[in-house]
Amino acid sequence: MRPLALLLIALGGAGPKPSDEPPPLPPPLVTLQVDAPDPVGPWKMVVTNKGEIPVRLAADGRLLTLELPPRADADTDRPTKRRKPPGPLVCKLPLPLKPSSVTEDRAVVLGAGARYEEVFSPALYCFSDATAKALVPGAQVVAKLGFSVATPKGPRKPPPARPPFVVEPAVRNPTVSGIKELISDSFVIAAATPPSPAAAQQAQDASDPNGPKLELVVPARVDTPDERTVSMTIAVKNTGGRAIPIHVRRDNLMFDIDGPSGSAHCGDPAERRAVPKEMFSSLAPGRSTSISVWVGEMCPDVAFDRPGLYRLRASLAFPASSQPDAPRAWNKTVMAKDPILVRVREGRLPFYTSPPQVFGGSITFDVNWGDMDAFGHVNNARYFTWFESCRTAYFLRLGLKMDRPSSLGPIVARLSCDYIAPVLFPANLTCGVRVVKIGNTSFTMAYGLWHTENPGPLCARGESVVVLLDYETNQKIRVPDDIRRAIDELEQPPREPT
User: Fold this and answer.
1) Is residue 37 a contact partner of residue 190, using CB atoms and an 8 Å limit?
2) pLDDT greater than 80 at residue 496
């Protein structure tokens, strides 16, 4: 045997051994897009399955992370020698707001072409001073949905991805892999619409330009563990030119609250309370006085019972003294200029008020030149035709026949459309539909219309009530059980075992 062959055998063979590991599967074709119409919000995230394989999605906006560019003036006072460029500002929810795994009641199956939408407030994530100041028009943002991916150090090969996955195949013997994190393309925050001037604003009396003027100074943000710990310090400041006697009471504070569960009002000042003149104190120009308030104590138990973001509008009443010799004190209600953002991390109720909704069916089509009207955009009546085509495709998937002499058929009892943005020729649109409610003899369907290549903002949304009719008796009938099961399977198909 030749010496070279002996050397190869000694080294373990004539060539490299074939790997026993199968090649990695490609990721599913699922995209994340965010529509940011202004810095304040609300924003909307859209997850679309552009592939042919059904996938299971963690439809949970709490898994979002927003990355913003650092401010241009950051670290300008530090020496520039060997200084690394500042990294992006990261906005994400703290524990326990952000789940560490997939919450089963937020898992949905996206069929081919289906999409999931969720509206959120960027202020819930960008809650620090630095990140809140970075939410400005023109800022470029990258959104990520899911779970962080470990990055290996050096040239080492990254380890195989392990659960939890934000997206994974929902079929047996899949041909795609799971994804731990969806990453959007960079998007730009649009400019906010200028606010209209208020009809009435606090102003100094024209006859007394140097008179006293009170302002309510409130914190911009309050981050609190739960509903029982919502507290803050509020200051009353005299921004006028002359001192004024005032009497500040904590129980004269009022809060108007907008939160995840709706609106609430806290506080009921006693306007007829007699205030002795000895209780008044003079507040000089430029000076302020502060009061600390436990908002969770003065508000109803249900005001902060759900974790999430709350906006509080604070106001302070100043009842007049009932004594005739009392000093001429301030007796107007003062309102804070800006709302207070309160983030509650835990609550008695769950974060979401309803289960996730997914369009169970969709169709894609081109806009025809004949769809246009004299105003240069698609005529409003065409939207109802598109909804009809989408609805018909959904019915066929349910097994509902749309032709006679079938004895059972769906009849539209009510149909409405909200026009959000004009549609111009040429365009390729997608219409999605889902059943949002099943009654005794009818069910309610919701429609969404969007540009296929830009699935973020909707062009229109609609709703219809469909009644099942027996053509032979011309009477309404109960929605059959097989149709109910078909709707359930279409709206949320069960995950096949792997």
Assistant:
1) yes
2) no
Give exposure, 431-456, as e/b (b: 16+ Cβ within 10 Å): bbbbbeeeeeebbbbbbbbbbbeebb
C-beta separation of 32 from 143 below 8 A: yes
3-class SS string, the chain:
CCHHHHHHHHCCCCCCCCCCCCCCCCCCCEEEEEECCCCCCCEEEEEEECCCCCEEEECCHHHEEEEECCCCCCCCCCCCCCCCCCCCEEEECCCCCCCCCCCHHHEEEECCCCEEEEEECHHHHCCCHHHHHHCCCCCEEEEEEECCCCCCCCCCCCCCCCCCCCEEECCCCCCCCCECEEECCCEECCCCCCCCCCCCCCCCCCCCCCCCCEEEECCCEEEECCHHHCEEEEEEEECCCCCEEECCCHHHEEEEEEECCEEEEECCCCCCCCCCHHHCEEECCCCEEEEEEEHHHHCCCCCCCCCEEEEEEEEECCCCCCCCCCCCCCCCCEECCCCEEEEECCCCCCCCCCCCCECCEEEEEECCHHHECCCCCECHHHHHHHHHHHHHHHHHHHCCCCCCCCCEEEEEEEEEEEECCCCCCCCEEEEEEEEEEECCCEEEEEEEEEECCECCCCCEEEEEEEEEEECCCCEECCCCHHHHHHHHHHHCCCCCCC
Over residues 131-143, the mean pLDDT reads 94
Contact 57, 166 (CB under 8 A): yes
User: At a CB cut-off of 8 Å and minimum separation 6, what does 48 contact?
Assistant: 30, 31, 33, 110, 113, 114, 115, 455
Higher pLDDT, residue 284 or 8: 284
In the chain the domains, ranked by start, together with CATH numbers, are: 30-73+83-151+160-188 (2.60.40), 214-344 (2.60.40), 361-491 (3.10.129.10)
Q: What is the pLDDT of residues 101-123, one digit of tens each?
A: 998 889 988 877 777 888 889 99
pLDDT at 130: 93
Separation between Cα atoms, residue 238 and residue 309, nearest integer Å: 31
pLDDT digits over 283-327, tens only? 899 999 999 999 988 888 788 989 999 999 999 988 666 656 555
